[in-house]
Amino acid sequence: MDEKIKVIELDFVNAYLLKANDGFVLIDTGLPMHRERLEKALVSSGCVPGNLKLVVITHGDWDHVGNCAELQKKYKTKIAMHQKDALMSEQAVSLNRKVRTLAAKIFFLIRLIKRKLQGVKMVFDKFKPDVLLEDGQSLAGYGLDAKVLHLPGHTKGSLGVLTAAGDFFSGDILVNNKKPDIAVYVDDFGDLKSTAQKISVMNIKTVYPGHGKPFPMESLKAGLSRYI
User: Fold this and answer.
1) Residue 182 DSSP SS3
2) Using CA atoms, how far apart are residues 93 and 103, in angstroms rounded to an integer?
């Protein structure tokens, strides 16, 4: 694994801290109740207020944007996401989606019951993104040799980040819960098919998913073909 990439495990969701030329870029922020764990991981890597150049949000769900408002305030950093998910952040809502597999439906129901028993509410502080990202946009201005890709299917505004070295930060469009797979919670199946086609021809070496361990892209390529 690239030493410039720090995997920050926040319960069932991941954030990723990338070393940039003169600071850091954070991809996703985890859940609000894991704020202290996130900040400890940032500080231990040398990421402090003043050198967090950008926070890239792969999509607007609460488990990915949960600490954006706090980072804007405390770190004076810019939050970047796609315009089509910006309303989710500004209204602090998550959208309903279709569940692609029976196993995912069961997993979702179990997790929902656990949250209710623990008194966990799916809420987060509202925030307005500072930067609206577009497909193909370079992150070189933030010291990172990478580009943003618009990959709808999980949400309308889902994004991925692909570095020049072939590291792909997929958000929830690719996951690794029990095995590498394409999104199991789907906003639009037509969009998901188009995104699968787009991903299949990209020069990806390693996938860093929003959920689960990083995995080599080769382990998914054959399975991805059934969605194309």
Assistant:
1) strand
2) 25
What is the residue extent of each domain of the chain? 5-227
CATH architecture under which domain 5-227 falls: 4-Layer Sandwich (3.60)
Q: Which two tokens stand for residue 99?
A: 């569940």
- Which of helix, strand or coil describes residue 8? strand
Tell me the pairing of strands 131-133 and 78-82: parallel
Q: One-letter amino acid identity for 152?
A: P
Q: Are the C-beta atoms of residues 29 and 71 closer than 8 Å to each other?
A: yes
**Tokens 């930060």 correspond to what residue?**
169
Integer Cα distance of 183 and 171 in angstroms:
9
pLDDT tens column, 74-103: 999 999 999 999 988 888 767 677 887 766
Report strand pairing: 52-56 vs 78-82: parallel
Contact 37, 10 (CB under 8 A): yes
What tens digit of pLDDT does each residue of 133-169 get?
A: 999 999 999 999 999 999 999 999 999 999 999 999 9
